Amino acid sequence: MLVDRLAAAEKAADSDSVRGFLDPEASTAFIEGEVARTQNLAGVPLESWHYRFDAVPDVPGSVAAVLEYKIRGGDRLPARRPLVMTLTRHGDLWFVKGFADSPGARTYRGPWDFGPTAATATDTTVVLSHPVDDALRGRVAEQLPAAVTDVARATSGDWQQNVVVWLTSSDAEYSALGGAQGTAAATVSDDMADGQVSGQRIVVSPAAATRLGRDELDVVLRHELVHVATRARTNPGTPIWVTEGFADFVAYRDRGPIEEQSGDLPVDAAFSGPQANRAYASARTVFDFVDDRCGVGSAARFYDLLAGGAVPDAATREVCALDAAEFRQSWHEWTITHAR
């Protein structure tokens, strides 16, 4: 099949073969862009790279497809990213004429769409960047193993500890790969199926990559690693203060500032806009308090209960032997005595 041969040529970085699968009547920009994309893939340690259709198209036109691929050392399951492929036919021969967006189906773009890509890998971690960021890629690759070990120790569950990190070089790339404006980093993944998460990526913004010192980068990596490690245990209804508070608790490791809290848990809307920093700090102190007052391993237990759908009153009773009102009051008083 055309797309199988195209995928094999792309994986092999065979630009000449790729040209032969593209419609000669396609735009020069598309053809040269696909050739460049193929060359950029040469630096990515691909274990597999395929295009999939729900049904094999029998007439020319635009069709929804999935790019399914695995990065060696980083993926246990294939990542699955959506795209829209335009197919044409001249006589008996089929060609690819373009990739496009359509309502509800945005064509996926990876780091290889933004320039040559290089990788630094260990047995379980892969850091990808453009050559201009070689030094930073080496620094992140050096810091990752200890961060993975610490996060694995701080969280429970069956996380496989495989990680892929992308260091972006422009705001456009960061946005295309799933980052939000104004954030230092983001964690993206495929939709969860059968309790398994695939395609998890930590995407680091260009601003964070250039401005963060070693300790600050360490915090960012650990925070995002917590999201990777615990993604399968959350659900769409998990409050943001739970996911972000626990991630910051693990990332800061008793190093973050503590301010007096009112005893009211931050609402989801507080995590965007001008009060976001305060909301993150407030959520973290909830887990600081639980860890200090409710016993060894209590913060992780508290997180697991809440992420799994338990209401706060049930979780506070089980972990801290406090009802919700008592918990909020005790947390409030704890932040006063531990302010720093």
Task: Please provide a written account of the structure.
Helix content is 42%, strand content 18%. It has 340 residues and is an alpha+beta fold. The protein has three domains: 2-108, Nuclear Transport Factor 2, Chain: A, CATH 3.10.450.50; 113-233, Zincin-like; 234-340, no CATH class. A five-stranded mixed beta sheet has the order 5-6-7-9-8. A four-stranded antiparallel beta sheet has the order 1-2-3-4, with helices on one face. A hairpin with a 2-residue loop joins strand 3 (79-90) and strand 4. Helix 7 crosses helix 8 (240-252) and helix 10 (298-307) packs antiparallel against helix 11 (312-320). The model has no long low-confidence stretch (mean pLDDT 92).
Summarize the model shown:
The chain is of the alpha+beta class. It contains twelve helices and nine strands. It has helices at residues 2-11, 15-20, 28-40, 134-154, 171-176, 206-211, 214-230, 240-252, 276-293, 298-307, 312-320, 324-337; strands at 46-52, 61-71, 79-90, 93-100, 118-121, 125-129, 163-167, 185-188, 201-204.
Q: First CA to last CA: what distance? A: 64 Å
Number of domains: 3
**Low-confidence regions:** none
SSE pattern:
HHHEEEEEEHEHEEHHHHHHH
CATH hierarchy, class of the largest domain: Alpha Beta
Strand order of the largest sheet: 5-6-7-9-8
CATH architecture of the largest domain, please? 2-Layer Sandwich
Using the alpha-carbon principal axes, give the shape: elongated
